[in-house]
Amino acid sequence: MTDTDDDPDTDSETATVAESYTEMTELLLPNDTNNLGRALGGAVLHWMDICGAIAGMRFASRQVVTASMDHVDFIAPIEMGEVVVVEGYVFNAGRTSLDVKVEVRAENPRTGDSRRTTTSYFTFVALDEAGRPTEVPAVECPTAEETALRERAIEGRREQLREVVDRYDV
Q1: Mind listing the pLDDT tens digit for each residue in 120-158?
Q2: How many Å apart are CA 34 and CA 75, to the nearest integer?
Q3: Is DNA-binding among this UniProt entry's keywords (predicted)?
Q4: Nearest-angstrom CA–CA distance, 98 and 115
Q5: Using CA atoms, how far apart are residues 22 and 87, in angstroms rounded to an integer?
Q6: What is the domain extent for residue 147?
């Protein structure tokens, strides 16, 4: 976390998108596959939740818990033996909550081919030592790259929510 002001009377902590960036890799093995040799959706969601929580903890320097997960579409299968890459970063923060974009892609370790398999947006709540919601830093984007990542995540979440509303005519 970065303190933007040396004045102890102000509580204006910030953290950057880059400080929260987390990447995990898994090798898809038989215990996490269905009878077709493809990733179980529950295993993928589990990895996404862990990656998002780590990104949130890095950002807030506190324990976080999952509050919600947006709609998830599994757009491409992950085959047994492929490397699963799960990436996440905080792109927005409220008073006690953090929004994290989590994206999954599959890589063929023999050919190097890679494809996106799913993306979702999680909300986590930071907890203090007593397990109560506690304030989190504001999001800071000191580079153009971080600003672009944040803007893409915000727009991606809006677009995903629009598609869900349109699909279900809510």
Answers
A1: 999 999 999 999 999 999 999 999 999 999 999 999 999
A2: 16
A3: no
A4: 27
A5: 6
A6: 2-168
Handedness of CA 54, 60, 63, 64 (dihedral sign): negative
Would strands 13-16 and 138-140 be described as parallel, antiparallel, or unpaired? parallel
Question: At residue 151, what is the residue type?
Answer: E
Please write the tens of the pLDDT for every residue from 47-89. Answer: 999 999 999 999 999 999 999 999 999 999 999 999 999 999 9
User: How many other C-beta atoms lie within 10 A of the C-beta of residue 69?
Assistant: 17
For the chain, how many structural domains are there in total? 1
DSSP state of 33: B
Residues 6+ apart with CB under 8 A from 139: 14, 15, 16, 17, 90, 91, 92, 93, 150
Whether 8 shows a pLDDT value over 50: the answer reads no
Per-residue confidence (pLDDT) for residue 7, from 0 to 100: 37
Q: Which residues pair with 98 in a beta bridge?
A: 93, 124
Q: Strands of the chain (E only): list them.
A: 2-3, 13-16, 22-27, 63-69, 83-93, 97-107, 114-127, 138-140
Residue 1, classified by CB atoms within 10 Å of its CB into exposed (0-12), middle (13-18) or buried (19+), is: middle
Sign of the CA dihedral running 58, 155, 120, 111: negative
pTM comes to 0.89
Contacts of 46 (CB under 8 A, 6+ apart): none
